[in-house]
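Internal tracking record. Fields below are filled automatically when a chain is submitted to the structure queue. Please do not edit lines marked as system-generated. If the sequence contains nonstandard residues, flag them in the REMARKS field before resubmitting.
Queue: standard
Priority: normal
Entity type: single polypeptide chain
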Amino acid sequence: MTRSEFLQRTAQLACGSCAAVILARTATAAETAPTSAPKPTPLDEALKKAQYENQFVNNWLTDLFAAIDTELDPAAQMKLIEACGRGCYERHAFKQEIAAAGKGDVDRLVAAYAKNFGIHREGNFVHITYGGGKCYCPAARNRPTRPNDLQCECTRATHQALWQAAMGRPYKIELLETVRRGGQKCHLRVTLV
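SYSTEM-GENERATED OUTPUT FOLLOWS
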């Protein structure tokens, strides 16, 4: 499943859930007298539970990142978040498919990236862009942003893992701009030499 397909499917599920909630409430309202409160449907209860769990996880992640910032030295912070980034690469088939499609050839890798990301080659650099004003990471996008957000190092590590898998060696990848750090998009630069 590509990032695009994933986002489309997620949007479809969200729209379907909203429509179901609206229809369920409309049907319930039509069946009861206008003066009585509608009885919560199983869908209402499931939505309420999902909202609670989402808020709980976001709060927990906020606390975790605050603890990482205060309790770990910068080297340990980076080691931890880079491991998460490599895990993200391993977990998502579309990222592994990009690496496989570009195996051993920078131009093929750039072409494979272009199916899911903005990308262009400029001399000894490759620029990767995405985001369009919003963070795509489900673990980060609903939490408060911060000027030096450590979460952004996770995306850098994901792309490092992808490039290393495709090309057989590590590449220097820099974060030039990220949405979570106040930018308009996420912009990474790969140094080819």
